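User: Structure with zinc ion, tokens only please.
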Amino acid sequence: MTVLGCGTSSGVPMIGCDCAVCRSTDPRDTRLRPSIVVDVPGHATILVDTTPDLRQQALTHDIRRVDAILFTHGHADHILGLDEIRRYNHMQGGPIPCHADGQTWDTIRHVFSYAFDGIERLGGGVPKVQAHTIDGPFAVNGVRVVPVPLWHGRMPMLGFRFGSFAYLTDCNRLADEAWALLAGVETLVLDALRDRPHTTHFTVDEAVAVIARIGAPRNYLTHMTHDLGYAATNARLPPGVELAYDGLVVDAQVDID
Ligand SMILES: [Zn+2]
Ligand SMILES: [Zn+2]
Ligand SMILES: [Zn+2]
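Assistant:
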């Protein structure tokens, strides 16, 4: 699993900000919009969300193939790069299977109406998507994926578990049924926006409390604002909890059908 971006919706540095984190020379303080890629050799390369930074993320990490895309929810920082998959459509010669819940599909079809209206266009192509609606666990080329229901303020959305690894971005509460679905997870990536409370994201302290309850030995925080400098924040986190950074690679065991 590679973290392609661990920044909040504005990214870090933020446009026009002169704070210490936005001006930091530590590369771990530069955060693109939130996404991961799960590469299961011999099976599938699975992208989670298509951020506005997808092109840059794909070039930086030389992502040559995308076998499937999973969407966590329909917010702009998680979907606006969908048009970039045209390059993968071309290289792979077809549409890309994309998995999202019904509400997220409604948003994607609205925002990217040009990709779904069936109108033949001259010139530039449109992203070609093979839409799958998530209604329970599924598999991508044999790689098992368990959707984990989360709350993002009043909006329901999905995290994803792949075997021993789970990715839970953009949430401030786990749904009651999520806890059992996360039993035995060994590596967890969890939303932690900043220290000040927020209506739709965990704070660092709230995330640390959730991490303690889930009990995974390895935990990484994501979706951070410029409030959280990498070095200073990491120094005060409990053992087993670290900030993610763009380019972080973590090995994990997935379940294969
Ligand atoms: Zn700043
Ligand atoms: Zn969101
Ligand atoms: Zn977000």
